[in-house]
Amino acid sequence: MTHNETQREVEVRGHLIDSMILTRIFDRIMDLNGEFEVLEFKIGKQKTDYSYAKLLVKGKNSKHLQTILEEVYREGAIPVKLQSANFKAAPKDMVMPDDFYSTTNHQTSVLVDSDWIEVENQMMDKAIAVDLTKKRAWCRPIREIRKGDMIVVGDAGVRIVPPERPREGMDVFQFMSSHTSTEKPIQALAKRIADDVFETKKKRGKIIVVGGPAVVHTGASKSLADLIRMGYVDALLAGNALAAHDIEYAILGTSLGIDVDNGTSRHKGHRNHMVAINEVFKAGSIAQLVKNGKLKKGIMYECIKNKIPFVLAASIRDDGPIPDVVTEMAEAQRLYKEQLEDAKMVLMLSTMLHSVAVGNMLPSSVKVVAIDINPATVTKLLDRGTGQAVGVVSDIGVFLPMVVSYVKELENS
Amino acid sequence: MTHNETQREVEVRGHLIDSMILTRIFDRIMDLNGEFEVLEFKIGKQKTDYSYAKLLVKGKNSKHLQTILEEVYREGAIPVKLQSANFKAAPKDMVMPDDFYSTTNHQTSVLVDSDWIEVENQMMDKAIAVDLTKKRAWCRPIREIRKGDMIVVGDAGVRIVPPERPREGMDVFQFMSSHTSTEKPIQALAKRIADDVFETKKKRGKIIVVGGPAVVHTGASKSLADLIRMGYVDALLAGNALAAHDIEYAILGTSLGIDVDNGTSRHKGHRNHMVAINEVFKAGSIAQLVKNGKLKKGIMYECIKNKIPFVLAASIRDDGPIPDVVTEMAEAQRLYKEQLEDAKMVLMLSTMLHSVAVGNMLPSSVKVVAIDINPATVTKLLDRGTGQAVGVVSDIGVFLPMVVSYVKELENS
Amino acid sequence: MTHNETQREVEVRGHLIDSMILTRIFDRIMDLNGEFEVLEFKIGKQKTDYSYAKLLVKGKNSKHLQTILEEVYREGAIPVKLQSANFKAAPKDMVMPDDFYSTTNHQTSVLVDSDWIEVENQMMDKAIAVDLTKKRAWCRPIREIRKGDMIVVGDAGVRIVPPERPREGMDVFQFMSSHTSTEKPIQALAKRIADDVFETKKKRGKIIVVGGPAVVHTGASKSLADLIRMGYVDALLAGNALAAHDIEYAILGTSLGIDVDNGTSRHKGHRNHMVAINEVFKAGSIAQLVKNGKLKKGIMYECIKNKIPFVLAASIRDDGPIPDVVTEMAEAQRLYKEQLEDAKMVLMLSTMLHSVAVGNMLPSSVKVVAIDINPATVTKLLDRGTGQAVGVVSDIGVFLPMVVSYVKELENS
Amino acid sequence: MTHNETQREVEVRGHLIDSMILTRIFDRIMDLNGEFEVLEFKIGKQKTDYSYAKLLVKGKNSKHLQTILEEVYREGAIPVKLQSANFKAAPKDMVMPDDFYSTTNHQTSVLVDSDWIEVENQMMDKAIAVDLTKKRAWCRPIREIRKGDMIVVGDAGVRIVPPERPREGMDVFQFMSSHTSTEKPIQALAKRIADDVFETKKKRGKIIVVGGPAVVHTGASKSLADLIRMGYVDALLAGNALAAHDIEYAILGTSLGIDVDNGTSRHKGHRNHMVAINEVFKAGSIAQLVKNGKLKKGIMYECIKNKIPFVLAASIRDDGPIPDVVTEMAEAQRLYKEQLEDAKMVLMLSTMLHSVAVGNMLPSSVKVVAIDINPATVTKLLDRGTGQAVGVVSDIGVFLPMVVSYVKELENS
């Protein structure tokens, strides 16, 4: 940008109106007290057509213009006169150049020598590292940056495709948009989610479950175990508590000492979760506990039996944790990401910690269903700029069994 | 009390230890910086035996002692030397004498001429009016006090029986005590409540349902309608919204415009609740709408068909309200109380407003089950000094259908 | 509409893009599986310019088209070929004609003999009654409809102006848009609200406060009393509890028996709110209690002293209620509406019941600030299609004092 | 226990009534359908006296009796005929003997050769390892158990001292008992907590702060920084987010991109937390960033400047995390425990994850103040069998500044 430049032509394509792309661009300019003229506007004549807009964006001075443009580019606009992306080498391991480009969770491309290179493993708040010879680009977390990595700086030559409002079919994501409510017709909602799980799997889409211990406490573990055995779950991401309580329930019938089947507090139940954890240590691992014949049912059992990968990430509040739990967080994050690759749908079941972690690792195009009894948790999980998320404020202990029973009906129909 | 009295002997009988009566008495004395000596203490040798304690309560001066005694009496103690109750006439309509005795929700008796008269229709925060010739006493709300009514003043001659911890059987109230939790085994809990509803009705106990519109929005209205038809509900206490949305659903299939069965937003649905309300005005009443053949199913339909009384109380936020709604609040309160007389069990389904109202009208001996997805609402409803209340934090749309299906199982077994 | 008509030209003007008007129109058509062509589109060249769009809307058949058009009209579009509104007389008192037009809370006009008549006292979910000779139109609740009233039916000749995104100044409504969050910088937010209260009053805008008893329980009553005395409050809308606890606090220093200033439970405090209520009955009214010299401070005192009108609406859960409370709900609603006329700003302080009531009575153009510690309450209050509402999830007991102290700073600067 | 023993004498000393010890013992016996006789009962004559009870506990058979006794011992009773504790060697590293005794968080002693040895670093749900020659005993987490460690098995020879109701002074813990409420007088509550912080520090009691990022987001970081500088904080336990956002705020004025001081969304603010993290990586550590002169204020700055130890524990959802964060969870737990040793008071500020972790590590005698805007979080934190915990449902962004300003007043008075 030249020093005295105060206006620039930008253009944008897509479902500008109904996906609110143009709305957001106008918003950003006005929020920053900028001015604009619409130089050209071709609206899609039919609902499947793309629209096109060319705008002249004006700032009060060169710096003001730059400020506005940076925001406008993050909404999907690009300058009419294309500029290549700029790079700087990382000065040392785990350090990004000062002006590093910080990613969104939307599909992103980088202009290198007139070629748009799509960024791989898109995630939010990461740097983009580019291999200029192989013409590949990746989102890279700060701890994985190595001295000399070529990192995109500034926002020239970066193009974003914001998520579009889904317009085909009638899946739950259209049905609910991003609305969260405690007063929705809950059985209808369970049916829609069951449909979506069923249809996603029919098309061989990868489905990931992220779950918290409330799944076990509330008595929904049998339903999740069924879903795994029926082949709908491609990986389970959780923490120590889900596994420990699932094993406690499978071996001793309790969850945190409460008899899950009749609801009473079991005698000496307070020690049951420690007994379960001790059993896993004795066996050496959950898989070994299954092999020994001691673990015969439940969520973890079905994962082992059906060779469904699981990653258990430690947290500071763990008892134990059991030997399978990954206690090194950087490693746990790496393993989570590995499982999330190419996921089509993620079910977040009553865990804020692990769901936020997974949300940070997902591109905005992945379908997300977040279920929690706490509306604040659901709101937080949906508040990540994705057009493909649905939040359900309900009781996992009754809601999940209902979803799974609808999936079974679909299988038998 | 003489002016220079600084200590007094009091006594108390009951399950002093396990119902925590003595604990609370000691607490009150210490909170007020009083002193006490235990003059006599006979502990029940077996668990069904009553215990007895005689204490010497000491204050720093006469006033301090009086202060302490007032608190101690509210926990069930009475002076060893009995004093009769004192009365003053109400100076005018709707005005209590200044020193009026303000009631608890525990069973209360008044000492008149050496006879303990039990107070009728026990409620919290009311005055006690006594008919000295007929030897009867009643809790009376301020607006129903008439000039000249003899009102108990001070706390001499008033005896309270605090609620005891239930010790027979294994009903849900023992099982849960007053605990509220979002992580209970929810199916086990539904079973316990179903058992209790079933057993209460088998003994011809009166069951009252207090319900909010979320019952309809979430799709649980069919379950409540079933419960009414099956004979488990003796009266329905609600507001305009439950009735309006139930009728909207019965006539048009929607609740606030959302199709309850498939969850989609119905075209022109926004006007449906007004259409439903208009239909009731056209017919003149809900009963007339049933008679006309326009209302053929649902909660209100079953009430009319099965001659189950209902009271719909207006509120400031009502649309309409429909003609059956009682818009005068003093009258609505009177009608609620009438239905609550001799109730054995009250189910509070997702309504804070009406549930708090009902809670204020109940003696502490009535069993209460409060279900709401908001833990703060459940906590508030249970926080009324009753030993017979259980709170369930769950989604009424899935929890109520589960309870009702267990009741059906019990009927068929 | 002719029987075989399957397409119609409609047009719409306004800030189509940034107020998302066009987005919503496209959405509605696609949701209903309709088709459309954009015949003409003039986008505002600068940010203050209006845009204009002419669309050809297509349905599969005449009925389908009609369905789509009804939705599109509710978003602000009108047919290019104007049609006059249609009317039917109300068949009897409190009954609307079957096809009544059900209002939104947006500014609405009705086409009568080529004149657009603006509807007065705009509210949601009401009928429109028209005086054809005086050329005036009003929103009318069902209970106020009289036999023979001319009521708008169908949606021909009805035009809506959807609310626009505010674009001038930097008030809190721009700053927050409709976002609700528990993790906002809370002191900055308090400052913004104080600015807005101050500026609104400087322009002599009418400010209404809707408040619940938590204002008193949490110790914020002094702040609200200050705000009234300083002249920022034009009317107070509340219930029995706020008044009873405010008077309890003013006379006895407690709220529900808890000493507000040092937080301890006061001896015999349980009866204090009944004592306060009894005092008002003795005096005859709150005003009389002030005149008697018994009520000397607090919220109600300041209302009386400064001749600020207040309306206390009864509810089914009231103790008492005190004589000033309006126990007839239809009358209470009428009185609320009277005070809300021409309001510019409404502060909703920790009361869901009264806030929902007020929300139902407000046109979408009134600024609303809703403060509650429960995020679900705030979400519900904002979910009413208004572009002028801001929700604050905070503790009224500390937040309101902070706002009021900022207002004082503004007064002194 | 002999095979045909069905009854046993047990005894218990302490404030049996007002600390509810006897109540709980009776409860346990009755819950398990056991019988008991009170053989002897000496009640403390004055409120500071201990009481003594000797009970004969009866089971239906030897196993039933054993079941009852195990529960009764956990409430503080011990057999009249003392038995020594039993031990088994841990069979391998990280494996407890099957019948391991699982600890409570109450003060515990183990009877070894007629000596009661007090267990060190008391925590819940751990094993007790005993050094028989040195006569020392410790709570030991499963991962720290080494082959051959002598572990207590069964419950013979284990004595617990349940927490007593505090009876001196008028600190916040007496004032609030364990009540949690959103409708407490919040300013009075802030004063009480300030008093307690002030008094605890005056007696050189160790105060630990556990904090979440909401402290920074809501604008309370300056208050926490003040509290540290004034010498009231002996260690800070937190996660990556608190540190990252504190540094973001100190360097860039924003928290997650929002300008904390004026509440607006800062241009390019989305990248600010990554910039802050990158700055720490560039410097190498937070201490180095202070030394470089780049970090000049805030929570972390005050820790470094005043040599207050801090432990930042990683979690699966971290961005970065910054180099100071401990990413190995077993190590992080060890470091947390190290700082918690001998703590007198813990302030838990708006973080569920770290607060639960700390709660698990604390004996029941440590005072805990838990502040969160979500009542469910506060309830969960208090639900750990401690008589010394107080929960405040309020907005940390306004509540903490109020507490700190009261502490300053106390300093200046």
Count of extended strands of chain A: 19
Which descriptor suits the 3D outline of chain A?
elongated
Pair of chains with the largest interface and how many residues each contributes: A-D, 54 and 54 residues
Sketch the major β-sheet of chain A: 6 strands, parallel
Question: Rg of chain A from C-alpha positions?
Answer: 24 Å
Structural class of chain A: alpha/beta
Query: Helix proportion of residues of chain A, in percent?
Result: 25-40%
Q: Strands of the biggest beta sheet of chain A: in what spatial order? A: 16-13-12-17-18-19
Number of domains of chain A: 3
CATH architect. name of the largest domain in chain A: 3-Layer(aba) Sandwich
Question: Could you give the distance between the termini of chain A?
Answer: 62 Å
Please identify the top-level CATH class of the largest domain in chain A: Alpha Beta
Low-confidence stretches of chain A: 174-179
Strand content of chain A: 15-25%
Mean pLDDT of chain A: 89
What do these coordinates show?
Chain A has 413 residues and is of the alpha/beta class. Chain A has three domains: 1-81, 2-Layer Sandwich (Alpha-Beta Plaits), CATH 3.30.70; 82-163, conserved putative lor/sdh protein from methanococcus maripaludis s2 domain (conserved putative lor/sdh protein from methanococcus maripaludis s2 fold); 172-242 and 297-412, Rossmann fold (3-Layer(aba) Sandwich), CATH 3.40.50. The first copy, chain A, has 14 helices and 19 strands. Chain A has helices at residues 21-31, 62-73, 172-176, 186-202, 214-217, 221-229, 240-252, 272-283, 286-291, 299-305, 329-340, 352-361, 375-382, 396-412, and strands at residues 7-14, 35-42, 51-58, 78-79, 86-89, 107-112, 115-120, 127-131, 136-140, 150-153, 158-161, 206-211, 235-239, 254-255, 258-259, 310-313, 343-349, 367-372, 389-393. In chain A, the strands form five sheets. A six-stranded parallel beta sheet of chain A has the order 16-13-12-17-18-19, sandwiched between helices. In chain A, strand 14 (254-255) and strand 15 (258-259) form a beta hairpin. The radius of gyration of chain A is 24 Å and the shape is elongated. Chains in contact: A-B, A-C, A-D, B-C, B-D, C-D. At the A-D interface, helix 2, helix 8, helix 11 and helix 12 of A face helix 2, helix 8, helix 11 and helix 12 of D.
